[in-house]
Amino acid sequence: MSRSRVYLDYNATAPLLPAARDAMMQALDLPGNPSSVHREGRATRALIDKARRQVADLVGADSSGVVFTSGATEAAATVLTPRFKMGKADLAIGHLYVGAADHPCVLAGGRFGKDRTTTIGVDGNGQIDTDALDRLLTNHDRQAGLPMVCLTLANNETGILQPVEKAAAIVKNHGGVLVVDAVQAVGRIPIDMEALGTDFLFLSSHKIGGPNGVGALVCAGEIMMPEPLIPGGGQEKGHRSGTENPAAIAGFGAAAEQLHGETIAYRERVSALRDRLETALLKICPDCVFYGARIPRLANTIFFAVPDLKAETAQIAFDLEGIAVSAGSACSSGKVGPSHVLAAMGYDADLGGIRVSLGAGTTDADIEAFLTAFERICSKRMPQPAAT
Asked: In angstroms, how far is the first alpha carbon of the chain from the final one?
């Protein structure tokens, strides 16, 4: 019998929660189209509305502001647009400002052209330069439309938390629109839209133990809304057409409801595991480099490098040892390449980093298995020849 594997890649996808699975199975038994007015349709609509409330509660929002999408990437592409409506009137967004270490779906700029997107630098800890943000917004051409700023609350590779509240004050002072990528943060730290000061945020179901293929754009209100990315039949109050996926949405809602009451306890438990793991890593390999360890970050995330050991080589070695970790993020269809996050922070992006991300199912035995594998891998590393 082969030994069981150890999964330490929760930032890529969290395993499906039993509550989410149960909710999905119940939804699959409902035959109605949620847009139909008969009893079957109303039952399916009620299920979606319940999930909408569950997701809203997780981020301190009103359920009327939750728009379900196929995932966070679609939500980002929807809200990152120069074309908005303020009620029935057109509202122009003139320019988009994004953080240099943000997720690729943010750096892509949504429906803004490259000439209307500006990247804001980050410091060596990966946090945005708020003084630079203030200068950029001071010089923003308001005749072209309002400024929009999009920031990633918790970095998907390093787990570093951005000073979103401080940035929000700057954005509001300049009359701008703030969008927050809360994909990695939700369920791992408490989130309240009003406290953050954001106008929009977006989420992904599979990061919190829900199913793949569903996410949400959460809006602070219903007056200012982006032009739909997908027009058509007018589902989701006209903000995202296409028949909803009730099973996926129900699973998303169930996962959100479970995490809503467990966030603080989860953070305390995984933080203790992470600290233990980091201490042990340094004993095994004293020259390990930990990224972002000196500033606030997610309690479940470690991103580190081992000199003379490429991250993708280490990832393969861990996989052969039965350990699932990532060499950076897992959002590029398996492509391995330099980390844009490390490059933005001023590190050697070619060396890369090993991302270990813990979750609710992580055990002490998992940590021990990882450390045993790491010790074997480090014992085999060979120093690279000096460049000539």
From this structure: 49
Is the dihedral angle over the CA atoms 7, 8, 12, 17 positive or is it negative? positive
Q: Which of 9, 13, 8 is nearest to 204 (CA)?
A: 13
Instruction: Average pLDDT across each block of 10 residues of the chain; the chain has 388 residues. List them in order.
Output: 79 97 97 94 97 98 97 98 95 97 95 96 94 97 96 96 97 98 96 96 98 98 94 95 97 96 86 95 94 92 92 94 84 63 87 92 96 93 52
CB 100 within 8 A of CB 151: no
Predicted structure pTM score: 0.93
Buried/exposed 204-234: b ≥16 CB within 10 Å, e otherwise: bbbbbbbbebbbbbbbbeeebbbebbbeeee
Return the H-helix or E-strand segment holding 336. Answer: none
Q: How many CB atoms lie within 10 A of CB 173?
A: 11
Residue among 223, 241, 296 at smallest CA distance from 35: 241
Q: Which amino acid is at 118?
A: T
Query: To which residue do tokens 């479940």 refer?
Result: 300
Angstrom distance (rounded) from CA 87 to CA 369: 56
Beta carbons within 8 Å of 385's beta carbon, 6+ residues apart: none
At 385 the pLDDT is 47
Where helices occur in the chain by DSSP H, the ranges are 18-28, 39-58, 72-79, 104-107, 130-138, 164-173, 193-196, 246-260, 263-284, 311-320, 340-345, 364-380
Check: CB of residue 21 under 8 Å from CB of residue 209: no
- For residue 336, the model assigns a pLDDT of 59
pLDDT at site 70: 97
Those residues with Cβ within 8 angstroms of residue 314's Cβ, 6 or more apart along the chain or in another chain: 306, 327, 354, 377
The answer to whether 244 touches 41, Cβ cutoff 8 Å, is no
Which position among 105, 288, 331, 378 bears the catalytic label? 331
Distance CA 325, CA 83 (A): 40
| DSSP letter, residue 60 | T
pLDDT confidence of residue 261: 83
Query: In the prediction, which pLDDT does 388 show?
Result: 45
Distance CA 238, CA 228 (A): 7
| The residue type at 325 | V
* Residue matched to tokens 């569903």: 214
Give yes or no: 150 in active site. Answer: no
Query: Do 250 and 51 touch, CB atoms closer than 8 A?
Result: yes
